[in-house]
Each structure stands twice: as C-alpha cells, then as structure tokens.
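User: I'm preparing a small set of examples for a lab meeting where we compare how different chains pack in three dimensions. I only have the primary sequence for this one, and I'd like the structure in token form so I can line it up with the others. Please keep the answer compact; I'll paste it straight into my notes.
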Amino acid sequence: MAERYILLVEDNPDDEELTLLSLRKRSLGHDIVVVRDGVEAIDYLFGTGPYAGRDVSQVPTVILLDLKLPKLDGLGVLERLRADARTRTVPVVVLTSSSQEADVRACYDLGANSYVRKPVEFGAFVETIGTVGWYWAQLNAPPPVRGPC
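Assistant: Understood. Below is the structure token output for the 149-residue chain.
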C-alpha cells in the first residue's frame, strides 16, 4: 500500500461504489481502503482482530466516516479515534445522509473535522464527494505523524 491513503468507512454497497467512483474520478494518487462497519474500522486503525500485525504507523490522510454503521456507529468510532494519541489528529470527515442537528453537533463535539451530507442526486453526489476527497487529500496540510506511544 502507498504511504498516503484514504480510509472509507461505509456499510452501504451503493454508497461505497459511488464514493470510490467519485474519488477515483479525481485521480487523487491515494490508495483507498474500505471497511464496512465501525468495529472493522477500529480493528484496522489499531491493528487488532483480523488486522493484527498491520503497521499502525501508516495512518490515513483522511477518514471518510459514515455515521450510521453496524456494530459500532460513526460516533463511537470518532470517540475512540479522538481518545487515542495515535489517531487524535487524523482528519475525519463524516459523510452521512442525516440532517439532524443533534448528529451534526455530536460529531463536532467529538472532534470531527467536517460534516458533509451525501447528496441524493447522482451528479451532485459524485461532485460533492470528489471535491471533499480532493480538498482533504490534496490541499489540506495533514498533521505531523506521531511516533510510537
């Protein structure tokens, strides 16, 4: 895997496919790793479970995190990420269909860097996700990588 990658945490196969299409259309030069629930995201990021032995010093450039996930929802994932020094500063963009004010507030309270509502219309979805990926992967200056704790 390349040193720079995007982690997509998405359980809906249609949204996953559209997100991958949108990101690849922008030719970001990043690998894209997909996990499909909150527990798998935590296992991947911290090198546990089926990802035991993974080099956890390789952190994503950005995490695109769905809010409504099985096993552990996006808020639970975000809370766990921000509680650990190794992942505290990794940019997290919540991608969701939720427009509930309580969800927006909870995400920002837990340290989300951005909250983006997934457009319903195909063209708008592709444009929005492509723009989000381009910004976080190409324009944003990521935090320095932390050494082992």
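A couple of notes for your slides: The chain has a mean pLDDT of 92. The chain has one domain: 5-138.

User: Perfect, thanks.
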